[in-house]
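Please annotate the following for my students:
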Amino acid sequence: MEVYDKYFIPVYKRIKLNITRAEGSYLYDGETPYLDMFSGLGVNVLGHGNRAIKKAVTEQTGRYMHISNYFRSEPAVELAEWICGNTFAGSVFFTNSGTEAMEAGLKIIRKHSSITGKKDIIVFSKAFHGRTSGSASLSEPDISSVYTETAVPGIVRLPFNSGESLSRIDKNTAGVVIETIQGQGGVNVADRNFLIRLRELTEREGALLFIDEIQSGMGRTGKFFAFENYGIVPDICAAAKGIGGGLPLGALLVSEKYSKILGPGEHGSTFGGNPVSCVAGLAAVRQITASGFLDAVTTKGQILHAGLMKLKEEYPDLIGRISGIGLMTGVEILKGSERLPGLFLQNGILVNMTCGNILRLLPPLTIGENELEVFLSVFGAVLKEIVMK
C-alpha cells in the first residue's frame, strides 16, 4: 500500500488487500477468498472471470483494439443495434463511464433548451450523478462537488419523493434528471406514484426526462432498467457500470424524438465505443437478457431481503431502514457502522458503506443462493459481536 501512498493522489480509501485473482463471486488475496458483495461498485454484474466475456475480448484484441470513431467499428455497431432493438432508444452515444454519459445527456438538454427557451434543470436531494463539473452540478453537494456546484446555471433542486414539490415543473423546465434508485445517496427508492407523476408532468410541459440508470440498470433490480418496474419510459437514459461486462463503457440512450439534437462536431469521445469494451458489453447484455436470468435475480433479491428482515427483527437496535429492489439493497446501520466493514473483512466478506451508515449491497447478479446465505449468516455474527462490545 505504500506504493499507492507515494504515487497516487489520495482520493481513495483503499482496502488493504492484495488482489491476485478473481473468479465468480470471489476476490482472492493470494489463496484467501473474499466474497464480493459490491462487485466493483456494481460493475461486475456477471461476476468475475465470465467465460463468454473473456472469449469475446480475446478474439477482438486479435483483430484490433482501437481505430477511432472516424471509422465504422463493427463491435460498436452491433452493440448499438442491440440496445436500440431491445430498449426505448432510437440512438445511442458510447462513453467510457457513467459520468461521461451524464455529461452527454446534460449537453442534449442544454442544446434543446437553446431552441425552446426553457432554462431550468430540475434535480433532487441526495442525488449523485458523477464528479465532473457538469455531473456534480446535478448532484447534491458533497465533498466532491464543493468546487463545482454552480458550474451549470439554472439548476433547481427539489426534495426526492416529494409529490408536492413536483408542481415546480412548469413551462420553464428544460429537463428533469433523476435516479430511479439513489445509490450513493443511500439506496433510496423512488415512490411509484412520485415517479409516474413526474413522467406525466414532464410530458405535459415538454421537458426532457433524463433517468440515471448507471447503478440500477443492467438487470440489477430484476428488470434490464429499473424504470421498467414503474411502467414508464424516459427521453434520455444514462447506463454504465455493468454494461461493459467489467471493461470501461458507458452509454447514453436517447429516444427517437431527440436523437438528432446534437450534430457533427457538437460532442465526441476518443475512446467512447472502444471495440474491446463493446464486444464485452454485447456478451454481457445477451446474458443478462437470456431466458430466466432476470427472474433468478428477482428470486435472489427476495431471499436477501427476507434474510435481512429476519436480522432486523433480531437486532432492532442495530438495523433501521432496509430498502432497494432486486439485488440493489441498502441497510441502515444504527450502531457500530464504523466497525462493520472491518468485521466483515475478518470473516472473508467484502462490503461497502455509503452515507456513513448505509450498508450498500451490490453483489454479482450471478451470486448463488448459498452464497447469499453465507453472507446473511456472517452478518448475523457481525451484529452479535457489535452488541457484545
In short: The mean pLDDT is 95. Residues 52-288 form a domain with the Aspartate Aminotransferase; domain 2 fold (CATH 3.40.640.10). The longest strand covers residues 173-179.
